[in-house]
Amino acid sequence: MHLLQASVSLSVFLRVCSERTKMATTQHFICVVIIISSLSGVDGYDGYYTTLADQCRFSSWDLSDLEYIRSYWFNKAEFIRFNSTVGKYVGYTEFGVYNAEQWNKDPAQLAMMRAQKDRYCRPNVQKEINKILTKTVKPVVNLMLEQASIGGQPAVLMCSAYDFYPKMIKLTWYRDDKEVTGDVVSTEEMANRDWYYQIHSHLEFTPKAGEKISCMVEHASLKEPLVIVWDPSMPKPERNEIAIGAAGLVLGLIVMIAGFVYYKRKCRVQVSVPKKSMVWSLDIDAAHKNMKNVLWLLNSVTMRCDKTAMKTPVKQLGHEYQA
């Protein structure tokens, strides 16, 4: 049962006017004070709240069971009501019964209240239906391989639609542009608890080379059906992982080579010549400048990087260089 409250916060507060010294059961009367406001922050008469609420109730889209209800409340208790289906006022307390009898004797009052269903409820309800209940949100569709074909077992594809509104939706499988009716298992539309829905459909199949498998989605938010074709190549997330791994490998090699070059340029090479029992420390740059001497030492040279050599003088064939 849908309940439509007045869009304008139309709260009519009734102030009960009674003479405390002359109060009698036959002398009940009320003075209506209309205030367009909300309940919060509004003081009642002598600390009490008396309110009026208009309601439009319906449960069918064609509004065939639409009814208008006006309720009068005092201290959170309803004491009188007009229902368009009943067509008259009904009291629930002694005070409400008395006033219902008085108001039901007035034909003009009853005619005005009976007309409220078509004058007030019907246009406002239809406006709310057009504004809210016909709102549509396009689904987000995803098609993925849930289970690969291993050991002769069939593969499983899953077509999912997320965050769509309204609830009604249709998912259809196609193989080579022919509708698939067998080997399909679908869930019901599941609510996300935020006015949106999701649905999942599974297709079991045996892969064939060159075949085309697609999932078609039909929904009120789509001007035409949305068709998603399955790509049997490597899924995009896995391709991204491989690309990231390859880029990391290349970057690592570049850093390693750069470090090696930097290390060799900053090192000093200690050269040992066993035949002459002497040790020469050569700078790499100096060795390149004197290639003849280096070639002469190749047969009997043992090289190692000595960090302490960086602070010692370097001798090469009688010449001394300060590192």
TrEMBL record:
Q: What range(s) does the Ig-like domain occupy?
A: 139-227
Keywords attached to this Swiss-Prot or TrEMBL record, sorted alphabetically, are:
Disulfide bond, Glycoprotein, Membrane, Transmembrane, Transmembrane helix
Predominant location: membrane
- GO CC terms in record: membrane
Recorded hits in SUPFAM superfamilies, A to Z, give: Immunoglobulin, MHC antigen-recognition domain
Q: Which SMART domains match?
A: IGc1 (SM00407), MHC_II_beta (SM00921)
Q: Where are the transmembrane segments?
A: 242-263
Q: Which protein, by its recorded name, is this? A: Ig-like domain-containing protein
Organism of origin: Coilia grayii
